[in-house]
Write a structure and sequence with these properties.
This protein has a five-stranded mixed sheet. The radius of gyration is 41 Å and the shape is rod-shaped. A hairpin with a 2-residue loop joins β8 and β9 (about 200). The protein contains 27 helices and eleven strands. It has helices at about 45-50, 50-60, 80-90, 100-110, 120-130, 135-145, 150-155, 155-170, 175, 215, 220-235, 240-250, 265-270, 280-290, 300-315, 320-330, 340, 355-375, 390-410, 420-425, 435-450, 455-460, 470-480, 485-515, 535-565, 575-580, 610; strands at about 5, 15, 20-25, 30-35, 40, 70, 95-100, 190-195, 200, 525, 530-535. The two termini are about 80 Å apart. It is α+β, with helices and mostly antiparallel strands. Among the domains are: about 5-130, 2-Layer Sandwich (Potassium Channel Kv1.1, Chain A), CATH 3.30.710; about 345-380 and about 390-465, no CATH class; about 475-515 and about 550-575; about 585-620, no CATH class.
Length: about 625
């Protein structure tokens, strides 16, 4: 319930005629006060007893007895509406003090020097103290401060309103039974509901941290910013501040309510959106919101940051604003989705998507994540995963998958130059891709959309991909892909053969280990009972038959792969040409750092185990 205070007790003594206010006490007016386009026909004595300024002006300008003088007060705070209430107060006529007029009356009373016991300054100050104890009235008073902002700032009314609101927003209103929005009638106190003649106690529902978002979003950004800064000083949760900023941005910037495609609109939020702001005002508002965002990871969602960045591009915000957003997104890029980073290119028509922006965000991510990941480089295993501390590399792996998906989407753009595609793919280190299927898919789509690139460029592009990390499905597709260079196809088939051979070797090693642990084969001895258990001969036969079938199946796969490899070679070519393409040499020679001229490729540590079984060749990638 809104607060109201009654001042004065006399009945109405004024009436209005056009742009003039006249007193009905029967005495002729001896002073006229002009405020704006209104004229107040008053008497000297009631004004002299209440206002120090009017007393001074009357003594200076109204020296002639019996003649009416004119006082001009165009600059009085609150204008004619405030002076009308002041005139009533001076005559003792009943007036109502409310949260909507107390600020202008307080400022006008200060302007007119209405000091002393029982005067308007004292009355309005006492009422302001009551207003500050109520959330809704404080909000109303703060909103009216903009009408008399200079005077309200000097009298610290604005700061007192801000402090009152910040204290209530910071604390839990359930503790103090404060009258806050949406909880005055049903949530603050327990009520009784009668159902089928039975009275039931209804307990109040808890109030969430966002109960004040909608109210404060009605403030101008100048006052809203003051409130947010006051809340930061009180160490309110950064997540709460971020959520309030999101709410405010969605209310005043229509583009913030649109989905990533810019075609679908969130109608629920759009109903609350005020689209009367000009594009310039929206740009200034967005830049101000970006400055207020908490500078801490995982406080503001990556989705909202990217939506802000997209809107900043459309509104042509400052470079510093877009740069801050790019840095914030980069620090938590692993939480982004592919749809959100498909940002349209607003600066040029060279490419459909803003590749440079994603490149910069990826660079920020690498600068954040690289110090943590660098310590794990020496302990990488064959699959590209660290032996310990794998959680530290999880963000890098997630971003690697995100970048591969992004490359797949942008690869269809015929205007995308090869250097940009290569530069973006090369940022991700090799260990971050346990599988190269995503990158292979992106490269394949790029080759399909850009058939005019040269063979040398195809070779360079395919060097980004580690053929050893392709899955069986991807290897099968690559072995039959006519868009890939022949050298890459042969490498894919070669590594697939190595994989099959390692699998066969592993099965035989496991079988030998089992036989070595049980040297008597089918005999087992139980010490407690002192008798031998004989394994049936038919079980042994079944086990050997299963092994033979598996070996035969693998041999068939190897034979079929060799046949596919032979089809890739023309009739007149020999296997020496294939060996030359692969870089096979008749004798294997190790590469040493002191002899770089003899070393064309240094094998990673993970593949050295494979070379032990193939010492007659040196693979050149």
């Amino acid at each position: 319930m809104a607060l109201i205070k009654i001042l004065g007790s006399k009945s109405e003594a004024f009436h209005r005629q056009g742009h003039s206010w006249l007193c009905r006490n029967g005495l002729p007016s001896d002073v006229i006060v002009e405020v704006g386009d209104m004229s107040f026909h008053l008497h000297k004595f009631p004004l002299l007893s209440r206002s120090g300024l009017l007393k001074k002006l009357i003594e200076e300008l109204c020296s002639e007895i019996g003649s009416a003088c004119v006082l001009i007060l165009h600059d009085i705070p609150g204008g004619a509406k405030a002076f009308e209430l002041i005139a009533r107060f001076c005559y003792g006529v009943k007036i109502e003090l409310t949260a909507l007029n107390v600020v202008s009356l307080r400022c006008a009373a200060e302007f007119l020097h209405m000091t002393g016991e029982g005067n308007l300054i004292m009355e309005t100050e006492a009422f302001l103290d009551e207003v500050f104890s109520n959330w809704e009235d404080t909000m109303k008073a703060l909103e009216t401060c903009e009408q008399v902002l200079t005077y309200a700032e000097d009298l610290r009314i604005v700061s007192r309103c801000i402090d009152s609101l910040a204290m209530k927003a910071y604390a839990d209103p359930n503790w103090f039974n404060w009258p806050v929005p949406e909880c005055n009638e049903t949530q603050n106190t327990e009520g009784f509901v009668i159902w089928n003649g039975i009275s039931t106690v209804v307990k109040p529902k808890p109030i969430g941290d966002d109960w004040w978002f909608e109210d404060v979003s009605s403030l101008s950004f100048f006052l809203y910013k003051r409130l947010i800064l006051a809340l930061k000083l009180r160490s309110i949760k950064l997540e709460t501040i971020s959520s309030s900023l999101i709410y405010y941005a969605k209310r005043y910037i229509p583009l913030m309510n649109r989905q990533s495609s810019f075609n679908e609109i969130n109608h629920t939020n759009l109903r609350r959106t005020i689209s009367t702001l000009s594009e310039v005002d929206q740009r200034a508002l967005l830049e101000g919101i970006v400055e207020l965002l908490p500078n801490k990871n995982d406080v503001t969602s990556t989705e909202f940051l990217l939506r802000l960045l997209r809107t900043a591009m459309v509104l042509k915000a400052s470079q510093s604003c877009k740069g801050n957003l790019e840095k914030s997104v980069g620090s938590q890029l692993e939480k982004a989705s592919l749809v959100d980073i498909l940002l349209p290119n607003m600066d040029s028509i060279d490419t459909l998507y803003d590749i440079d922006c994603v490149q910069r965000m990826l660079g920020h991510f690498m600068s954040f994540i690289h110090p943590a990941a660098a310590s794990f480089f020496p302990c990488l295993m064959e699959e590209g995963q660290p032996m310990n501390g794998s959680d530290s590399l999880t963000p890098m792996t997630l971003v690697a998958a995100l970048v591969d998906g992004y490359l797949t989407e942008v690869a269809t753009d015929v205007n995308l130059k090869l250097p940009k595609f290569e530069a973006l793919a090369a940022v991700i280190p090799g260990y971050a891709r346990p599988l190269a299927d995503g990158l292979y898919h992106a490269i394949d789509i790029y080759l399909k959309a850009h058939p005019w690139i040269t063979d040398y460029e195809r070779e360079q592009l395919c060097r980004l991909m580690d053929c050893q990390k392709l899955s069986v499905e991807a290897s099968t597709h690559a072995a039959q892909n006519e868009r890939l260079p022949l050298r890459v196809v042969v490498q894919v088939v070669f590594f697939e053969q190595l994989r099959l051979r390692d699998s066969i070797s592993g099965w035989f090693i496991v079988d030998n280990l089992e036989n070595s642990q049980n040297p008597r084969g089918s005999l087992g001895h139980t010490a407690n009972e002192g008798w031998q258990h004989i394994v049936p001969a038919e079980d042994q036969v079944v086990g050997h038959d299963e092994m033979k079938e598996r070996v035969l199946e693998l041999q068939k796969k190897c034979s079929s792969m060799k046949q596919e490899l032979q089809k890739l070679v023309k009739t007149k070519k020999t296997w020496r040409i294939i060996a030359k393409i692969l870089g096979f040499k008749p004798k294997w020679k190790p590469c040493y750092p002191e002899e770089p001229k003899h070393c064309t490729y240094k094998e990673p540590v993970a593949s050295m185990n494979r070379k032990q079984n193939h010492k007659d060749y040196d693979v050149v990638h």
